[in-house]
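The instructor's notes for this session suggest beginning with a concrete chain rather than abstract definitions. Hand out the sequence below and ask the class to guess, before any prediction is shown, which regions might be ordered.
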Amino acid sequence: MAETKEKKKFVCPGAFSQVYIYHDGRVFLCPDCLMSPKAEIGNLNKKPFWMIWNSANARKIRKEIINGKYNYCSPFQCFCKSNYNIRLTPCNVKYSPFQFKYPKMVCIGADWECNASCIMCRGEICRLSKEELETFNKKINKLYIPILKHADSLTVSTTGDPFASRNTRLLIKTAAQKYPKLKFNLITNGILCDKFNCDELLITDRLYYVMVSIHGSNEETYNKVVKNGNFKKVLENIKWLNELKKQNKIKGLYFAFVVNSKNYDNIPDFIEFAKENNGVALFWNCIDWGGNLNHSDEPLNIVNPENPKFNNLVEILKNTELETPYSHFSIAFQRIKKLF
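After discussion, reveal the predicted structure:
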């Protein structure tokens, strides 16, 4: 990524204060854009976290960021680069490649268990075997819990659903009991994100933000994208989350929308949906994680100019204000609007 005057004014603090742990043990400094193989800083299954947190690659990435270089970051996935007001901090804040304290923000995608199957992600419901579940559960106290000793927040789950995953549920409850001041950020499909489950996991009064992946502004579109979902139940749970937001019991309420060839025409209505529900719509482009985009009868990656529906997307973006208090688009869409 080319260096710019804008980057000289600001430093992204993510690599200095947060960590993302993938379900297979790989560790990265950002769950959004530092996800390429060259950005991996270690693997929990091979080395202890204290060595990974200040590994040679971790220090190299931080040093480059301090110098205004973001060569390890993916510009198409970075929300910071597309909107410098989100997380970037003035460069006069002192940062060091070596971090003495463990991260303040920990994000864990513990496993793939989910009670829905979105077509951009997987082709079927994912459940762990008894042996896999036992293996993951052993990691909770041994690997994950110690990493949270300086954390302000724990984010779950980026690879499955935090309520549907038996392993993640145990992780949440264990962390809630171990660290009474810890806040929780949830990335969920919303089907089980209700008061009953939050009470059971001891986090109802400790939520910081909740991101609901819904991918459609109406039930018809939702059902095309989210298989085995429950649109009415999700709306019911969003209503409960909206009440928490109104009472200032949660800081942020977000609605994730992965734009693809089956739902792109919902973009304008989804922004209104977010506004009506006191939240912010976050629009992402499809990412192929190695064949995950093959679970559809048509090409899903609509930001590809070769996609038959690409021009339709361009027209919608031309007539849509991308940055509002109720919407934010990843840089891929901002570039399309600028270029076309």
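Then share the key points. The chain has 13 helices and 14 strands. Residues 1-7, 82-87 have pLDDT under 50 and may be disordered.
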